Amino acid sequence: MPQVVIRTEGLSKTYRTGFWKTKPVLALDNLNLEVFENEIFGCLGPNGAGKSTTLKLLMSLIYPTAGRAEILGESVFNLEARRHIGYLPESPYFYEYLTAEEFLSYYGSLFGFSKSELKSRVDHYLKLTDVFHARKLQLRKFSKGMLQRVGIAQAIIGDPKVVFLDEPMSGLDPIGRREVRNLILQLKREGRTIFFSTHILNDVETLCDRIAILNRGTVIGSGTLNELFDQEVSRVEVVISGITVDRLRDLLGPETSVSQTGCTSRLELQAQSLLAGIVAEIEQASGKIVSINPMRQTMEDYFLKLVGKPERRATPRPKD
Amino acid sequence: MKVLHIARNTFRECVRDKVLYNLVIFAVLIIVSSLILGAITIGDVKQIIINLGLSTISLFGTLIAIFIGIQLVHKEIDKKTVYSLLSKPVARHEFILGKYLGLSMTLAVNVCVMILGVYAAVLYLRHSFQVSDVQILLAGVLILIELMLVIAIALLFSTFSTPALSALFAFCLYVIGHFNTDIREYGLSSDSWITEVVASAMYYLLPNFGNFNIISRTAHGQFISSHIYFLAAVYGLIYSLGLLLIAMWVFQKRDFK
Question: How much is the ipTM here?
Answer without folding.
Answer: 0.85
